[in-house]
Design goal:
Blueprint (H helix, E strand, L loop, with lengths): L2 H26 L8 H14 L3 E10 L2 E3 L15 E11 L2 E11 L3 H20 L6 H13 L4 E2 L5 E4 L9 E2 L19 E4 L2 E3 L7 E11 L8 H13 L5 E2 L12 H10 L3 E8 L6 E3 L2 E5 L4 E3 L6
Antiparallel strand pairs: 1-3, 2-12, 3-4, 5-9, 6-7, 6-8, 8-14, 9-13, 10-11, 10-12, 14-15
This protein binds manganese (II) ion (2 copies).
Length: 311
């Protein structure tokens, strides 16, 4: 890769980051008790396009004990509850250069909800402060854990941050919020220019591990698999093009098939393993979860936060 293509990649990463930050602010302002979750994500996804980006995945709106991967279905009637921790998690791409960012909105706040949300933010900030080229991921995880524990809450142990590459949201390196001593020397080192998303989740649950607790509404494309039915194959190739092979929402298919055909279309594609579902993730014991996330570019001395909050 020559220097000019590195530069334009950098520009696109920064542009995606600005759009993501602006959209996150805008979308979080839509979150009020009684408001339709579907309306919230549609407003956000519309905003991304208006600002000149594309969604890198459907906007996730995970409420209370839901941690991730909830996006409303077509015609979904769910609303923001009277008391809620609402995680808005969104991704933007510009020519495949991705920004991934999330924040927790508190509805009818109390001390515990504040604590959880602040702990997630503190974990994220501590991680950002520890990032520079040469640092092991393990060190970053240790800082996340330490910051979160100082609030007397716990990080979710089996959700992690991740490296990002062009058109690839989860590009191989995982950044957990816990750092077992035994994993220190095996832990990869961050390198200059690497793009990573850091996203600690917090909870008061005594068993802070998430499970699949709801049917998938978000789907990803399998590599090089096409449906055998010619009509479905045609729709499938349009979907791949439209979504740039990145994750998509079931409800988005309403632009390709009639709303009543969405489920059958997805079932056929799942059956032939052309796509896979991302189940809704959350705590079965119903404890609340908070989250904070930024995307950053690793530099020699520190990092550039591409999704930095705008004032
Ligand atoms: Mn995210
Ligand atoms: Mn992420």
């Amino acid at each position: 890769m020559n220097n000019s293509s590195v530069d334009s990649g950098r520009e696109k990463l920064l542009k995606a980051g600005r759009i993501a930050a602006q959209t996150l602010n805008y979308t979080c302002h839509q979150v009020n008790a009684g408001k339709s979750l579907l309306e919230i994500v549609e407003i956000g996804e519309q905003k991304i396009s208006e600002l000149g980006g594309r969604p890198a995945f459907p906007i996730n709106v995970s409420v209370n004990h839901h941690a991730a991967h909830y996006t409303p279905s077509y015609g979904d009637s769910a609303v923001v509850p009277e008391k809620a921790l609402v995680k808005i998690d969104l991704g933007v791409h510009v020519d495949g250069y991705i920004a991934d960012t999330a924040r927790t909105v508190i509805i009818d706040s109390d001390a515990e909800m504040e604590q959880l949300t602040q702990a997630a933010e503190a974990g994220l900030n501590a991680a950002i402060a520890s990032v520079r080229s040469g640092v092991r991921v393990w060190e970053v995880s240790k800082e996340i854990n330490k910051a979160i524990r100082s609030f007397n809450v716990r990080p979710i142990e089996n959700l992690t941050g991740h490296s990002i590459e062009q058109f690839n949201l989860h590009a191989g390196i995982s950044i957990p919020a816990i750092a077992p001593a035994s994993e220190r020397v095996l832990s990869p080192r961050l390198k200059e220019g690497m793009v990573i998303a850091i996203e600690p989740f917090t909870t008061y649950s005594p068993s802070p591990r998430i499970s699949n607790i709801g049917e998938a509404q978000i789907f990803g494309f399998a590599q090089r698999k096409n449906p055998s039915n010619p009509m479905l194959r045609r729709i499938f190739s349009q979907m791949k093009l439209k979504y740039a092979q990145l994750p998509f929402a079931a409800r988005w298919l309403a632009e390709f098939v009639s709303p009543t055909e969405i489920n059958d279309t997805l079932s056929s594609l799942l059956e032939e393993r052309c796509i896979h579902g991302y189940a809704v993730l959350g705590l079965p014991d119903k404890h609340f979860v908070a989250q904070a996330e930024h995307t950053l570019i690793v530099t020699r001395e520190s990092c550039i936060v591409t999704t930095k909050k705008l004032s």
